[in-house]
Amino acid sequence: MSQTIRLTVAQALVRYLAALRVADEEAPGSAPEPLFGGVFAIFGHGNVAGIGEALHQYRDALPTWRAHNEQAMAHTAIAYAKTHMRRRMMACTTSIGPGATNLVTAAALAHVNRLPVLLLPGDTFVSRAPDPVLQQIEDPHDAGISANDSLKPVSRYFDRIVAPAQLLNALPRAIRVLTDPELCGPVTLALPQDVQTHAYDFPLAFFEPKVVTLRRPQPAEDQLAAAAEAVRAARRPLMVAGGGVLYAKASAALRAFCERHGVPVCETQAGKGALAWDHPLQLGSVGVTGSPAANTMAREADLVIAVGTRLQDFTTGSHSLFGQAAALAINVNGFDAGKAGGVELIADARLALNALSRELGGGGQYEAGGRAAWQSDEAWHEQARMAARGWRATVAELTGTRTLEQGVLPYDAEVIGAVQRSRGDSPSHDIVVCAAGTLPAELHKLWRTGHPGGYHVEYGYSCMGYEIAGGLGAKMARPDREVIVMVGDGSYLMMNSEIATSVMLGRKLIVVVLDNRGYGCINRLQQACGGAPFNNLLEDCLQGPLGAPPIDFAAHAAALGAHAEHAGNIEEFEAAMRRARASDRTYVVCIDTDPARTTKEGGCWWEVAVPEVSDREAVRLARADYERNKQMQKVLP
């Protein structure tokens, strides 16, 4: 007869999570690490007595971290998993009302970006004895609905634990989704507050330490043969590296493939850093925020090899950029592989690239049978080298030291250059973190990173407010790295509370606030669509008699416990950055920037619908441009 142990549902859940381990495949023989780096918790009446007591009991085995905002703590947990390339993760627990609904945005972000996070919101009483409980959402047509049902559309797996024995299958299923490369995303286990406290005789074996194996799907032979045939038929292939390259730790395989076969590489936001910025075949960013080198080659390519990317509209120029090319999609997720509308190779990126290279003769000079290893046209990869070299020179010029005229504000490229210069001659181990607005476009083009993980930009969901919380998650995952959060004033005002958390936890960040006094990115998009400047920059908004407040971001950050200062120009900013690097705590550096100037080089069309009818001539002209650009759009079968 199997041994059992009597535990509450909350105790069993926490004990199970604490027992999970994951091995480091790059360090064979090393001790496995905990799969969960801890649990972020903001307690309320829906979780403090149940899971809160269990977390206290097992606090030595599974750390509990306190945050200041539920959405922010989930962003932090997601960034932690992203920095660990999905190999380690965190859980988050909230109370039953606004705490739970605050998780929805973060869950959507994790869902879009294919990142694991375990959400453990409290829920209403299964007994319904105190019905309706404080914060309960009541539906007159369905008594079983609670606020947590809003998490169903943005969860990859959802379960409501209404009986203790349910944990015996719900937890293994949850872990499978969190650690499966194809299913990976947010998991929600809703925990009714009475059930959290119910006891049950759980099998003791359920809590034995387990080492989770991270699956690497092998390519199927028929798909591999079709992929090799597609590549051999090409003369001008272009590889688009997405986040799947990083999550599969396939950077070395990517580099070997492009060198052996003469295939130039460009990168999505999620894939940036997969190939070092100065590699001769590295064309830089692609798409709407792309470099001229990458986008020119994209328009001339006859085959696009999309590796680990969802091919969202910013990458494809709303399907206008690769219209002439055939497609080969290498992706662990069949749903994502099908978006290219071409040949699919559904497999782990590292295994797929290595296997495809062998099919093409990548193991040596000749394949079996004496055929020469396949390569792209020599003129094509030489063109790529020249284009990449030219773009690197342009980046150096755009981000280099320059003296601005009196009264001229810097723009993002000049700030980015100063951030990178501030590290001196030492090798870069910085991790830059960003999310929405103008900065992701500028960083995608201009940030230089030589190692996977040095570029951490959330642009699948483009979520304002992710930046500082995400930076904290990156720092918790990599405390040895300098984590630099670059954030606009709009995003800073949306969510800045985790500055205080970073100080409390001793996880130092450098936060760079670029203040263009409003939503500069959307203001420019508004005008590009023919609209008048309206409700984006503070000066264009409805205001009371006192006008827009002059916001002192440095004073605000200092009030949260950080060191902070405002820089009056780029020279002062660079000096402030050196002080920030030397600081022992979170340091915020603010600088005023130009809301109108951006990097003109590169980019391509992005579909934003313009009104068909307007009394404004500017809108009518923008609509005519829109209709012309629509003609370039490739309609996928």
UniProtKB/TrEMBL annotation:
Domain named Thiamine pyrophosphate enzyme N-terminal TPP-binding: residues: 52-135
InterPro entries recorded: DHS-like_NAD/FAD-binding_dom (IPR029035), Myo_inos_IolD (IPR030817), THDP-binding (IPR029061), Thiamin_PyroP_enz_cen_dom (IPR012000), Thiamin_PyroP_enz_TPP-bd_dom (IPR012001), TPP-bd_CS (IPR000399), TPP_enz (IPR045229), TPP_enzyme_TPP-bd (IPR011766)
Gene Ontology cellular component list: acetolactate synthase complex
Keyword Glycoprotein: no
GO MF annotation, one: thiamine pyrophosphate binding
UniProt keyword annotations, A-Z: Hydrolase, Thiamine pyrophosphate
Entry's EC annotation: 3.7.1.22
Enzyme class, spelled out: hydrolase
Domain of life: Bacteria
Keyword Hydrolase: yes
Gene3D superfamilies associated with the record: 3.40.50.970, TPP-binding domain (3.40.50.1220)
A Pfam family the protein falls into: TPP_enzyme_N
Protein name: 3D-(3,5/4)-trihydroxycyclohexane-1,2-dione acylhydrolase (Decyclizing)
Organism: Paraburkholderia pallida
